[in-house]
Amino acid sequence: MRRILLAVLMMCSLGSIAQDLHFTQYFNAPLLVNPANTGFNPEADYRVGGNYRNQWAALQNNPYKTMSVWGDVQLFNNRFENAWVGVGGALMKDVAGTGSLAATKGYASVAYHQMVGWNSLVSLGFNAGFVQKSIDFSKLTFLSQWNGKFFDAVVPAGELSFMNNRQSYFDLQVGMNFATFPSDNSYINLGLSALHVNRPRERFFSNTDASAAIVAPRFTMFLNGVFKLNDRWILSPNAYISKMGNAMEYVAGGMANYNLSGDGTTQLLGGLYYRVGDAVAPTIGFQLNSYKLTFNYDATMSGLSSYNATRGAMEVSLVKTGVFSEGKAVKCNVPSF
């Protein structure tokens, strides 16, 4: 029984540290990946979006659920000849496990975008946020509740005297982007960001050493491209790397847009992504005017597939873009139909 208790406590402790952004469609959650993406949508004045991910439903009755909503807008586009400012915000919540381990995060972000020459753009951004995490200990059982035959939930858990079921902290993130537009039919974008740069402390155990409770910085890098082949096809390869402590994540793949209507108002999307050592994610989508709906399914390819029959995660996103008035001045053109 001691092993059961230790396993539960380790899951609570490690889970509170490991819960962080985890979307296969990272490019459809731009503000959560890099604050320099705020307002980085040259052909639109604003964007709003939502994401939902349900993971490991085949392994437990309470799967890992991650949800987010976000939005950004461009400012001073008509005041600066070769620059603009983006402001935005994002909310994110995830819940996992029998103990309902939950994280709620809210961020406000700002970025400055400056044209360099005729075909390059540099962006710098940061965001500030508030994070609250909680766990419901009433849904868990502990060693002191074992009566020799079964866990008696009526018996008070003595272990809770050194635990807190809720904690919160302030969080900071910084980032930068570089984009180049070699031609009207090509675009390349490189981004770098660092999350938890203020090194906040996060702990459910009141007797945990404060230095051991510091949240490790999370570093991310992405490389995106958009290449228009002709009036019917656009290819968009992507690569993403994230490092937090000793944990690494690598995602690579791409999407293809097919122009169904001929004028670009209706498009069919399809692609494939691979998370190294974890899963393959076939992706489909549909775009109608300014609305884009994208769905992917992560099929587990690691050793975990023996237990979940490759059923890893499903994810869906919806993004809406728009302009405030016709005749918007576009300072850099991303290839489009």
User: What structural class do you assign from the helix and strand content?
Assistant: mainly beta
**Percent of residues in beta strands:** over 45%
Known CATH architecture:
Beta Barrel
Structural domain tally: 1
Straight-line N-to-C gap = 63 Å
Taking strands numbered 1, 2, ... along the chain, how are they ordered across the largest sheet?
A: 1-2-3-4-5-6-7-8-9-10-11-12-13-14
Main sheet summary: 14 strands, antiparallel, barrel
Task: Compute the number of strand runs.
Answer: 14
In the CATH hierarchy, what is the class?
Mainly Beta
Indicate the mean pLDDT.
83
CATH level-four homologous superfamily name:
monomeric porin ompg
- Low-pLDDT residue spans: 1-19
Binned, the helix content reads: under 10%
What would you call the shape?
globular
How would you characterize the overall build of this protein?
The chain has 3 helices and 14 strands. By secondary structure, the protein is mostly beta strands. The chain is globular and about 75 Å long. Strands 1-2-3-4-5-6-7-8-9-10-11-12-13-14 form a 14-stranded antiparallel β-barrel. Strand 1 (46-55) and strand 2 form a beta hairpin.
Topology:
Elements: H1 2-18, H2 30-33, E1 46-55, E2 64-75, E3 83-96, E4 101-116, E5 120-134, E6 166-183, E7 186-195, E8 218-228, E9 233-244, E10 247-259, E11 266-275, E12 279-288, E13 291-300, H3 305-308, E14 311-322
Antiparallel strand pairs: 1-2, 1-14, 2-3, 3-4, 4-5, 5-6, 6-7, 7-8, 8-9, 9-10, 10-11, 11-12, 12-13, 13-14
